[in-house]
Design a protein that fits this description.
By secondary structure, this protein is of the alpha/beta class. The protein has 32 helices and 23 strands. The chain is about 60% helix and about 10% strand. β11 and β12 form a beta hairpin. α19 runs antiparallel to α20. The two termini are about 50 Å apart. One of its GO terms (cellular component) is plasma membrane. It is found in: Cell membrane. Its main location: membrane. It is a multi-pass membrane protein.
């Protein structure tokens, strides 16, 4: 970690102008500070000698006003400079990453952190630290030259002690480097955990594991707090060391000056100038130390970004449309070969090539290798630029038009409408808003089949010569398949099309077929349980056993621990009381600084009268005490206040996660992943920052101002009133600045949320982005982020202008206070009511308190930012849950299932508690439902059904008629708007929500696999399951071959799962859960015929009730309930093979 890396200016051109402007302004401000010290010494010495005050007063006030104008200009530039540089860096990162295969980029979690928090850390680094670094290189030399002219001996002392400061800074900084890296690792854990948990929150809610994750979130927050406080201790220590060294050095100057004054060997004005000028030589380096903790984050971010800022050249593609694969092999990290020694070639020109083979054979991986999204482990791939329509199409929040334009920015509306008509989606969209129909994150608002059609339409509008389709018919109704087959065949007449499919009818249309075999098993030399699919699961533990243990983001064996309390935590356990302590300590630190300057002035003037040295000892001890107390107290205040803020942040983040749980999935779901991550990370940071950046410094400034006004007023009442009035005016200016900035802060927080949300979504799904846009051609998406950047930059400019005005006005108040108090002190000295030493104390006090006054605009700005962030959080959490919460207390554990009113037994075949009498497990009576609480039309038309114990039910029908919506109602993820839903004889809203959900297992159409081990992903459904239970469940869903290839068995971390493997893993969870009812959303959509048959055979065993949405084959023993659109058939009550009705085309 370097204090400054010139590569920043070379690789990020946007940084050059802001850094140059801020550096010039910093040097100019330092120069004015030197001139101000000279003029203030002139004013003080003139006051205590009774001279003419006009000239020194005029120069001092003018310099302060000029310094205020420069400070205002600095604030105006700094407010947007860091934002501009961060925006440019984020765009460069995404453009570079979009041109690299997955193996050459950071892992998604790390990439998200770098593109969000990492880039954000550059803002204070550029806006504050680098200008301070430049000023530290120039201003001390200027101060030293000025001091050399004033007093050679004082200059010599400064010359000898000044080099010690950077040496101390370097020694402390080397330790800070390691601490910062540890903190960044903790931030990576935090970002990765939230990203993974938010994605999988519907799964956690479905299996009753979300509350367990609350403790995990708290633990991750604790780790973040510990790592951050450890880093801050070291970073703040640099500030203390530099300030103590500066204090000792200035004390040496003061001793030299004081002794020479006492013996009459020095003029008072020269002595006063030397005393006030010496600190200015050390101040720029002290400021660098004060900004060091910002530099630590920013410099570490720059070092980690490294070559990521270097632009890449899009990969060259061969001419023609021939695809050649030569002895290709690919292996996911920690896995056996997915593909091995594969050699395939397509004919030249257009045509249709079909990839077939069992699930998990590597068909999707091969398509990604052909598209250039991955690097082969061995062999080579030659292919033209390609468009890949993935199993789960990339659909970002925005309009249908914007999502189609990702593949072809120049496509006209007519071309887009034609493509949508050809795939059969236009009718569903035209009743809404056509191309302007707004989709949520991940295509929320469309069914799985409609999402697939939209992905296929995007392939049609793309101009890529090679089109790759990954199971384009997986989620489509049977009556739609001939139309899509004809469409793919027609597309292949004009372009080369390679389609991975389990649809044998589609494969029959191909002029070339590649069958991809499963790779050979990996001999790990360990025993594995029998591959028998029907192996029974353990039933030794009751179904109602408490769900403890396990884990998701943390491994199953990780224990959630708590850190031992520190001594301060034991003495003062309340965070609010510790914050009060920090506020008091901060006020004392500020007061010590004021007292140091004022007492030093008194001491110098008193020494000029050449008294007995012993009479000065009290004042000398006071100066030493104040000089040592200021940095030590400031260090204590910072550590305590930051610890309280971080503890509060961890608690608030945990509370926020808990509040998200009842909103999942219907009110939150996949629509707001980026927004939620922004809320629980950045917005909560701003809210809790209020304690550190508002509460403590504001009350510290108020305390110091009150003490200053009282002390000055005790000697000269009018001057005390001036100090008090100036304090009030400064606070009022800060409050007015807050009102002036409030609107800009709201715009900035909103724009920042949009940028971070979009950057998070794009970065986390960059492989899918490349599939749509092509490798190295994601300009359209980066342009969307740049558009959001423009809004952020505009808000930052408005904010910085407002802040600059308030800062300039504050310095104007300081100038007026210093001038007025100086004039009053001069008049009082001439009148004989003030002695010379006291007059010096009175004159210097307003300038000493100015340091605290100058921070007031920033304090109130932080308050405005916190209020804006708090408003965003309130909007997020203001949503009402889509399901009624528990009305009754949870029944005793021994009678939880029986409380539903249905007797149970345990099925010996699969270890599942099931119903034994003739009462239905579930029944609905004319239920309607809507995903949007404000929707006028329901997404599910009236439906009545009765599901008997152990019955297998298949919901079929066209895409978009509401099959998934009905599953959501049955799972109690969505309450019906009309009608009743009952378990046994009891309406579900009269039962505890957790009790109803505990009886139902869910596997949706896009199940989530957490970034943990295989074991952790399975035990969340059944924490007490034994290893043989876990393996038996995997084999039962035809994952035996996959499991046999895992290098570490159940401890293998999940990477590179195919769609079919992810679906079957979700089915294994459902089997392990031992729940009476299993809801499945197209579980065989991504499976080959053999695997699908095995899975359906497994599901057909035992007495477990199953409701399955499917467009594929079904066993003859399963009852089929075809759903039709509401416009076709009136509401019907169904108890056997009769039709159900559904809702408008937009339903899921």
């Amino acid at each position: 970690m370097k204090p400054f890396d010139p590569e920043l200016l070379r690789q990020v051109p946007a940084a050059r102008a802001p850094v140059a402007a801020l550096s010039v302004a910093g040097v100019l401000a330092g120069t004015l500070a030197v001139a101000q010290a000279v003029c203030l010494a002139w004013l003080a010495s003139t006051v205590v000698t009774g001279g003419e005050l006009t000239a020194p007063l005029a120069w001092t006030v003018a310099l302060l006003v000029l310094r205020g104008l420069v400070a205002g200009a600095q604030e105006s530039v700094a407010g947007w400079a860091g934002q501009r540089v961060a925006s440019g860096m984020r765009s460069q990162l995404l453009r570079r990453w979009s041109g690299l295969p997955e193996e050459s980029r950071p892992q998604p979690d790390d990439a998200v952190r770098r593109a969000t928090d990492g880039v954000a850390a550059i803002e204070p680094y550029v806006a504050r630290y680098l200008p301070a670094l430049v000023a530290a290189a120039v201003v001390p030399a200027l101060s030293l030259l000025t001091l050399l002219v004033v007093d050679v001996w004082a200059a010599l002392i400064v010359l000898l002690t000044l080099p010690l400061m950077p040496i101390f800074a370097i020694l402390i900084g080397s330790h800070t480097r390691e601490e910062t890296r540890t903190r960044w690792d903790a931030m990576t854990d935090l970002a990765g955990h939230f990203l993974d948990v938010v994605r999988g929150l519907p799964t956690l809610v479905a299996y009753g594991r979300a509350e367990r994750q609350v403790a995990v979130v708290a633990e991750v927050g604790r780790r973040h707090r510990v790592a951050t406080v450890r880093t801050l201790r070291t970073a703040f220590l640099s500030t203390v060391a530099l300030e103590l060294l500066a204090t000792i050095s200035v004390a040496l100057v003061a001793v030299c000056v004081g002794l020479r004054l006492a013996f009459g060997a020095m003029d008072l004005q020269v002595a006063m100038t030397a005393i006030l000028l010496a600190p200015e030589a050390y101040w720029p380096i002290r400021r660098v130390g004060a900004e060091f903790h910002n530099a630590a984050d920013g410099a570490e971010a720059l070092e980690q970004l490294g070559q990521d800022l270097t632009p890449t050249t899009p990969p060259s593609t061969p001419s023609g449309v021939r695809v050649a694969v030569d002895t290709l092999a690919y292996r996911h990290p920690g896995r056996a070969d997915t593909l091995r020694d594969l050699t395939l070639t397509t004919p030249p020109g257009p045509g249709l090539t079909a990839l077939t083979g069992p699930s998990g054979a590597g068909k999707t991986t091969l398509l990604e290798l052909i598209a250039g999204l991955r690097l082969p482990s061995a062999g080579s791939v030659s292919a033209p630029s390609a468009h890949l329509a993935t199993q789960r199409p990339l659909l970002l929040p925005g309009s249908v038009r914007e999502n189609l334009a990702l593949a072809c920015p120049d496509a006209s509306d007519a071309e887009m409408r034609l493509a949508l008509q050809r795939v059969g989606l236009w009718e569903a969209l035209v009743v809404r808003e056509g191309l302007d129909t707004v989709l949520g994150d991940d295509g929320f608002g469309l069914s799985a089949g409609q999402r697939g059609r939209l992905g296929l339409a995007r392939a049609l509008v793309s101009t890529a010569p090679l089109v790759l389709l990954d199971e384009p018919t997986a989620h489509l109704a049977a009556d739609a398949l001939p139309e899509i087959h004809a469409l793919v065949t027609e597309l292949a007449r004009h372009r080369r099309v390679i389609v991975a499919t389990h649809d044998l009818d589609l494969a029959d249309h191909a002029d070339q077929r590649w069958r991809i075999p499963l790779a050979a098993r990996l001999d790990r030399g360990r025993q594995v349980p029998s591959p028998t699919a029907a192996r029974p699961l353990s039933t030794e533990t009751p179904v109602s056993a408490p769900q403890t243990g396990g884990g998701v983001a943390l491994d199953a064996g990780d224990a959630v621990t708590t850190s031992p309390p520190t001594l301060l935590h034991r003495w003062i356990p309340s965070p609010q009381r510790r914050l009060t302590l920090a506020t008091a300590v901060g006020g004392l630190a500020t007061t010590s600084g004021v007292a140091l300057t004022a007492t030093s002035g008194w001491l110098i003037v008193q020494a000029s009268y050449q008294p007995v040295v012993l009479t000065l000892l009290v004042a000398i001890v006071g100066v030493r005490a104040f000089g040592l107390a200021r940095p030590v107290l400031r260090y204590a205040e910072r550590i305590v206040s930051h610890d309280v803020a971080l503890e509060t942040l961890a608690a608030e983040r945990t509370r926020a996660f808990r509040r998200l749980i009842p909103l999942t999935p219907a009110r939150l779901g996949r629509r707001s992943r980026g927004e939620v991550l922004t809320a629980v990370v950045r917005d909560l940071d701003d809210v809790t920052d209020e304690k550190v950046r508002v509460t403590v410094p504001l009350w510290g400034a108020v305390l110091a101002s009150a003490v200053a006004a009282l002390v000055v007023g005790a000697f000269l009442a009018p001057a005390g009133l001036v100090v008090l009035a100036a304090s009030v005016v400064v606070l009022l200016l800060g409050r007015a600045g807050q009102a002036l900035e409030q609107s800009a802060h709201q715009d900035l927080v909103t724009a920042r949320g949009a940028v971070r949300s979009l950057a998070t979504l794009v970065t986390a799904q960059l492989t899918q982005v490349q599939a749509v846009t092509g490798v190295g051609h994601a300009d359209r998406l980066v342009d969307r982020i740049d558009t959001a950047h423009h809004g952020e930059d505009s808000a930052a400019r408005s904010l910085s202008r407002a802040r600059g005005v308030v800062v300039a006005l504050t310095w104007g108040v300081i100038a007026a206070a210093v001038g007025t108090v100086g004039w009053l002190a001069g008049q009082a000295f001439v009148a004989g009511t003030l002695s010379g030493p006291v007059a010096a104390l009175v004159v210097l006090t307003p300038m000493a308190i100015a340091e605290a006054w100058a921070t007031v605009p920033e304090i109130f700005g932080a308050r405005a930012r916190a209020q804006a962030a708090r408003g965003r959080l309130a909007t997020l959490f203001a949503q009402q849950p889509a399901v009624a919460q528990e009305r009754d207390a949870r029944p005793p554990a021994a009678d939880r299932t029986a409380a539903v009113g249905v007797p149970v037994v345990t099925d010996a075949a699969v270890g599942v508690a099931v119903v034994t009498d003739a009462a239905p497990v579930v029944s609905t009576d004319a239920v309607q439902a809507a995903w949007d609480a404000a929707a006028v039309e329901p997404d599910l038309a009236p439906v009545s059904l009765r599901l008997q114990p152990g019955e297998r039910l298949v919901l079929t029908g066209p895409n978009g008629v509401g099959k998934s919506t009905l599953l959501a109602v049955l799972a109690r993820h969505l309450d019906p708007t009309v009608g009743t839903y009952s378990h046994g004889a009891t309406e579900v809203r009269d039962l505890p929500l957790s009790q109803v959900r505990r009886r139902i297992a869910v596997a949706d159409d896009e199940p989530h696999a957490f970034q943990g081990t295989v074991r952790a992903n399975l035990v969340l459904a059944c924490p007490d399951a034994r290893d043989e239970d876990l393996v038996a469940a995997l084999r039962a869903v035809d994952l035996g071959h996959w499991f046999d290839q895992l290098p570490d068995g159940l401890e293998t971390r999940l990477l590179g799962l195919s769609g079919g493997e992810r679906t079957r893993l979700s089915l294994a969870r459902g089997i392990l859960s031992r729940r009476p009812v299993l809801l499945l959303d197209e579980p065989t959509a991504h499976l080959d015929e053999v695997s699908a048959s095995r899975v359906l055979e497994c599901l057909g065993h035992g007495l477990q009730s199953v409701v399955m949405v499917s467009h594929d084959m079904r066993p003859a023993s399963w009852r089929e309930l075809p759903l039709t659109a509401a416009a076709q058939t009136p509401a019907t009550s169904v108890s056997s093979h009769r039709d159900l009705t559904s809702s408008a085309a937009r339903s899921r």
